[in-house]
Amino acid sequence: MRIVYIEPFEAGSHARFGRTLTARISADWHRLTLPGRHWKWRMRGSGVFFAHHGAAAFDPPPDLIVASSYLPLTDLLALRPALAAVPRILYFHENQLAFPLRGAPAERDNHFGFTQLVAARAATLCVFNSRHNRDSFLDAGARLLARLPDAVPPGWIDDIAARSRVLGVPLELPGLYDAEDATGYDIGAWNDDSNGIYSSENESNAGPLILWNHRWEYDKAPEAFFEALFRLADRGVPFRVAVCGQRFRKAPPIFEAARARLADRVEHWGYLPDRAAYHRLLARCDLALSTAVHEFFGISMLEAAWFGARPLVPDRLSYPEIFPADYRYADGALDETLRALCARHAAGSSLRADRRHLVRPYGSPLIEAYRALFAELTASAEP
């Protein structure tokens, strides 16, 4: 099977998705990518770019195209009409119709979401990483089309919905692809304290180690995270904090303010590009907290859970699809839940545990689902 993989924004979760998919599924892969920057230009110009610079991949036409929704697929098909006979998967890591706006008041530039609506009509199949992603795209798309003055083709959203599926992001973690009944790996190799597989260091007096491992951006609501920690500190609750995750040129100012205010509680601060070092940090953390206002999947929280940290996530967005209710907090209940977990830790009850069962569905079973999907689409396209 010859597959062309197209990613106009090769960074972060997009890049990890592509690497895992192409490494875990045997095929004659041809990768067409651009660096993860200038996202608006990627959504405007990458179709034309790949049409002209992907000749070796498109001639002869492949058996399947797997492309990120950053690709304006209709532009590519217009300039490479032979590809219209090739099955085309458009994979939605995100959607521009439901991405939260920065600041308020703000008005959404619907051109980017409209580009994705058009691309979705040109795809053989739209695959979303979560039901939340799919449903928010379809609902917002219907509202946008209802605002247009005239000449809107009927059944646009229904057509996309009928050709949509949900498949999560396959992860790449040590031991994840071992046999289901195997121990997978020794957490002691990742944890400075190897006395017990999922036990943390005996530092109950210092409080639990609370993790931030998200992008340093507004949609992850860092203000809500740090303000919750400030309130804990003001109450005299012992805890420590580890802050990692990718930082871009303009990080929200709360990060520097929080580093100064929580200085004596900081165990780690800053992005860890080395995956082994990142995993070692996860293996020390007691509690992984999300306060996100945008989450179409949730890779960082699954990574933390794989290494034994207790996830604590909002009861909204994509999280209800991934984590049981015990790991979710309702709006307005974060402070109470955090204090209760810190009290459990102070009483000697470890927050860390073997939580690999939460993550295993995003290993071999998910890869098998993708493999079956590829086979289904290529078989249906055969003359």
Can you describe what's shown?
By secondary structure, the protein is an alpha/beta fold. The chain has two domains: 2-170 and 363-381, Rossmann fold, CATH 3.40.50.2000; 187-360, Rossmann fold, CATH 3.40.50.2000. The protein is built from 13 helices and twelve strands. The strands form two sheets. Strands 2-1-3-4-5-6 form a six-stranded parallel beta sheet, with helices on both faces. A six-stranded parallel beta sheet has the order 9-8-7-10-11-12, covered by helices on one side. Helix 9 links the parallel strand 8 (240-243) and strand 9 (266-269).
The H-level CATH homologous superfamily of the largest domain, spelled out, is: Glycogen Phosphorylase B
Q: Report the CATH C-level class of the largest domain.
A: Alpha Beta
Order of helices and strands: EHEHHEHEHEHHEEHEHEHEHEEHH
- In total, the number of domains comes to 2
Computed structural class: alpha/beta
The largest sheet is: 6 strands, parallel
The N- and C-terminal alpha carbons lie at a distance of 15 Å
With strands numbered from the N-terminus, the spatial order across the biggest sheet is 2-1-3-4-5-6
